Amino acid sequence: MSVISEITGSLSRMQTRQIIEQLIMFGLIVSTALMIWKSLMVISGSESPIVVVLSGSMEPAFQRGDLLFLYQSDGPFRVGDIVVFKIDGREIPIVHRALEIHEKANGKFDILTKGDNNQVHDRGLYNGLTWLNREHIMGRAAGYLPYIGMITIWMNDYPILKWALIGILGLFVVVNRE
């Protein structure tokens, strides 16, 4: 209880101008984060330049919780490329390896994927499609950081953790007087 009373005491001692300054600072932090995300989108050419591996389907290449950096290019796909795709009707993008690629006469590609740790290809995940097309591909893996994405997985698995973290960060911004 002493922590809560200390925070409320600190807030009550603040002048209106200090509170407004802290709220503006909080807005600047949020705006900066959004600008960084948009900049990464422009640089990578991908609508989602960073994704987290959510399952063990790509082991041993990628572990659950690895953070992948994506890029999108107009170049041809190659067998073995690690692609992230999203299918209509599925909320979460999937990270898998290109298993087969068929180039059509018009220059378009049909892609079949498979997780390294899976026994069969991904046609069962395609919601009735036989092949993926370029419009399904969100990007190709350019690099990764191991296990950094576990924070995201924990916050999705335990929503109270996400709200606690947001609340604590918000309090630090509002209560900090520097």
Report the principal-axis shape: elongated
- Output the helix-strand order: HHEEEEEEHH
The CA-CA distance between the termini, in Å, is: 25 Å
Instruction: Count helical runs.
Output: 4
Indicate the structural class: alpha+beta
Report Rg.
Answer: 22 Å
Instruction: Tell how many strands the DSSP assignment holds.
Output: 6
Beta-strand fraction estimate: 15-25%
Mean pLDDT: 87
Mind explaining what this structure looks like?
There is one protein chain. The chain is α+β, with helices and mostly antiparallel strands and 178 residues long. It is 37% helix and 21% strand. A 6-stranded antiparallel sheet has the order 1-2-6-3-4-5. A hairpin with a 5-residue loop joins β4 and β5. The longest helix is centred in the N-terminal third of the chain and has 29 residues. The mean pLDDT is 87.
Keywords:
single chain; 178 residues; alpha+beta; six-stranded antiparallel sheet; 6 strands; elongated
Helices and strands in order:
Blueprint: H1 2-13, H2 16-44, E1 50-52, E2 67-71, E3 82-85, E4 94-103, E5 109-114, E6 137-145, H3 150-157, H4 159-175
Antiparallel strand pairs: 1-2, 2-6, 3-4, 3-6, 4-5
